[in-house]
Amino acid sequence: MLERIVDATRARIAGLDVSGLKSRAQDLPAARSLAGALLAPGMGVIAEVKRRSPSRGELAAGLDPAKQSLAYQEGGAAAISVLTEPEFFDGSLADLEAVRGAVTVPVLRKDFILEPAQVWESKLVGADAVLLIVAALTDRQLEDLIGEADTAGLDALVEVHTHAEAERAMTAGARVVGVNNRDLGSFDIDLATAEALAGPISEAKVRVAESGIFSGAEAERMAACGYHAVLVGEALVRASDPAVLVAELRGMGP
Fold it and tell me: Which residues contact 134 (CB under 8 A, 6 or more apart)?
């Protein structure tokens, strides 16, 4: 599945002009700090705007990105994550722009970032941070994209799934590291993944647990092994009151 998404992404970004995007984006106002927001006291919540996923299908028909993100902010979310991948997740850059216009907290572009042009595109549409998935990148690409994000003034949330990927992320200089509890092959979720990888990423400035968090008790479990924040999507887009669930997740932090 990852290979299919990466191939589709390469086709989608083939026409991006890094020079043009950089020229248009480099003089924009400074981004909001994702790292700073996640290091505030208590459990940080990156609340996700997510319409569907390859493993779970449609999650939120008719989702209004601006309204959803405002509910997250009302509940105390530290940041908002927005899926912008169109083919497999039904996302769009328009969703991110809508969220950016609605909230005052940092906004993470969650997509399959493979080229520097996408970093500048992200800044241009209002992202404060980008997701970099180690499994989709070579070591050189990872280092280059972390550097490009630094140049653009954006934080990079570097996502890992295995011990080897955690080591690669740390070697590449990742400062904000997310451990995804979802197995990329089987799509199974196991919070023990984040527990097992807490050690290898212990030197990261910010540590984020991703996937499989549906309640305050699970957020507390992640806090207990050293995570500063959790990234939560499915539970929040399906919640009858997202603000209440965000508050519950926050309240279980250290």
Answer: 142, 158, 159, 160, 161, 165, 168, 169
67 is catalytic: no
Rounded CA gap, 129 and 46, in Å? 12
Would you call 195 a catalytic residue per the annotation?
no
210 is catalytic: yes
In the set 85, 110, 122, 218, the catalytic residue is: 110
Q: By residue range, what is the domain housing residue 125?
A: 2-25+34-251
Strands, E assignment, 27-110? 44-49, 52-53, 57-58, 79-83, 107-110
**pLDDT tens profile 218-232:** 999 999 999 999 999
User: Could you say which of 69, 81, 180, 181 is catalytic?
Assistant: 180
pTM of the full structure = 0.95
Known catalytic residue: 50? yes
In whole angstroms, what separates CA 100 from the centre of its chain?
15
CATH code, domain with 92: 3.20.20.70
Judge contact between 45 and 212, C-beta under 8 A: no
Tell me, rounded to whole angstroms, the distance of Cα 135 from its chain centroid: 15
Residues in the chain where the model's pLDDT stays below 50 = 252-254
Overall domain count for the chain: 1
**Which of 97, 210, 218, 234 does the annotation list as catalytic?**
210
- Check residue 76 and give left, alpha or beta (phi > 0: left; psi -120 to 50: alpha): left
